[in-house]
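To illustrate the input format used throughout this study, we show a single complete record. The first block contains the structure-token representation of the backbone; no residue identities are included at this stage. The design step must infer an amino acid for every position from geometry alone.
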């Protein structure tokens, strides 16, 4: 039943919003940088920070490590927590280079790559899985705050389950397909911004007929 329901949710979201083309980036390393910078901020701020890095010509692991940490922090300042994020980007860059560069790093077995990412400062499961899904293009479902909010309101989860439990649920209920996971995650983000906000906008919601929250009003 869950498998059919999860597929129907995807179908309705895709019909409502169309393909999202996420993650917007020119290179896998830019995806990795964006995954770190987007922590605790909105995407507009991340775009400004990445724009600064591009303008300075330092959007590579080698360039990140050659740049003084204070200068790197200045460039990523629009993303907030800029000193912490500068340190995290340097640690990530060191890990990439110590494993032979971007291509070799992202070609590691998914379990090993995830283990390395989770060992780095400031990288938790959501950030690690974003890198696996969008930079390494591995079929790993990303669970974020939008996913929890939407599926708890739909009545499938409580919303406070451990991350790994929810990731396993989605990977069990959906075909293991990288493009599907990318599109589904992006559609959930879009829906969380358009309708399923902290204060929901239920009028016109494409999932309204399926929603336990709406029925309980």
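Output of the design step:
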């Amino acid at each position: 039943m869950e498998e059919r329901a999860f597929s129907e949710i995807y179908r309705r979201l895709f019909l409502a919003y169309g393909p999202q083309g996420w993650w917007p980036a020119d290179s896998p390393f830019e995806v990795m940088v964006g995954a770190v910078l987007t922590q605790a901020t909105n995407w507009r701020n991340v775009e400004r920070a990445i724009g600064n890095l591009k303008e300075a010509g330092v959007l590579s692991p080698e360039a990140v490590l050659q740049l003084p940490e204070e200068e790197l922090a200045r460039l990523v300042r629009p993303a907030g927590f800029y000193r912490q994020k500068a340190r995290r980007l340097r640690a990530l860059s060191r890990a990439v280079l110590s494993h032979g560069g971007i291509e070799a790093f992202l070609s590691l077995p998914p379990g090993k790559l995830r283990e390395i990412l989770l060992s780095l400062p400031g990288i938790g499961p959501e950030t690690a899985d974003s890198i696996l899904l969008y930079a390494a293009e591995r079929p790993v479902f990303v669970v974020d705050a939008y996913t929890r909010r939407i599926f708890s309101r739909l009545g499938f989860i409580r919303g406070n389950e451990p991350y790994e439990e929810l990731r396993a649920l989605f990977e069990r209920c959906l075909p293991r397909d990288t493009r599907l996971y990318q599109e589904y995650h992006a559609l959930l983000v879009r829906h969380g911004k358009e309708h399923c906000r902290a204060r929901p906008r239920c009028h016109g919601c494409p999932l309204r007929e399926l929603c336990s929250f709406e029925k309980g009003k």
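Structural context for interpreting the output: The longest helix spans residues 82-98. The chain has a mean pLDDT of 97.
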